[in-house]
Amino acid sequence: MIALDHVTKRYGDLAAVDDVSLTIPSGEVYGIVGQSGAGKSTLARIVNLLERPDSGSVVVDGTDLTALGTADLRAARRRIGMVFQRFNLLGSRSVRGNVELALELDGVPRAQRRARAQEMLDLVGIGHRGDASVHELSGGQQQRVGIARALAARPSVLLSDEATSALDPETTASILDLYRRINEQLGLTVLLITHEMDVVKTACHSAALIEAGRVVESGRLVDIIRTPGSRLTSQLFPLGTIPATVESDATVIDITFAGGTADRPVISRLAREHDVDVSILGALIEQIGGTQAGRTRLEVPTHAAAGIITDLRGQNLLVEVLQEGVRA
């Protein structure tokens, strides 16, 4: 488990991380999401104390990293593997040599580190490229080398800082699939730092939204989706503004659902049982946190809106009123 308690990091007058408290459960794929400059990369570097916070504590697997001296902190960092956006591979070394590097610095005997490097290259799907130069690899393959290197020292946490942002969509999908597989096979806690909501949708069990150095929302995605007014949910399901064609006297509602409600004929039943015309203004369905979830925007007659909303909420659906029409 990773626990940040009232962590603050300032650069002059700028609070890059501002009084952040956050708990990341063991064994999850957890996303820290925010726009450029929000503070998410600083937060990532605080997790392994590459940046020391001005105040607050950072606990990883029961150890308060902020209380450790230099030697003990160096040892503790071995439990936190780091994957970088720009790969940070050494061109003077082979693929296998890059993976072996951290083990070599730790004094692991040559035969053992070679075997471990090969094991990790096999795990990430490029075991056949061990003798190749890193310059011969595609961007996605180089990222796999970076992941193998981060796993070589058997960490309990894998921290990825915007590690897919330089990759094309197809390669990104394959790397996210690899993160999920690593999480499942090795039981690692995977912390993904990203500005891309698609990364959160595809890979994460839980997420935190950070803005101006503060965590404004966090939790398991299946719970966040069911939370009224959730900003993360609105970004996961961006339906945009109400179309100009909608009359001001119409009632517009958003229905958000997760789990077993996704495949029920909710809208057709509404139209039939309430004897009204229901217009669909937008809809998105995604696989999020291992659960099918979605949001649908409806235009309904104002005279029937109250009954429709009561009906929907009775089915444990989240209903939010965007425009409340005035009865004629």
TrEMBL record:
Q: Which SMART domains match?
A: AAA (SM00382), NIL (SM00930)
Q: Could you identify this protein by its name?
A: ATP-binding cassette domain-containing protein
List the Gene Ontology MF annotations in alphabetical order.
Answer: ATP binding
> What does the UniProt keyword field contain?
Amino-acid transport, ATP-binding, Cell membrane, Membrane, Nucleotide-binding, Translocase, Transport
Q: What Pfam families does the record point to?
A: ABC_tran, NIL
Matching SUPFAM superfamilies, A to Z? ACT-like, P-loop containing nucleoside triphosphate hydrolases
Boundaries of every ABC transporter domain copy = 2-237
Q: Which InterPro entries match?
A: AAA+_ATPase, ABC_transporter-like_ATP-bd, ABC_transporter-like_CS, ACT-like_dom_sf, MetN_ABC_transporter-like, NIL_domain, P-loop_NTPase
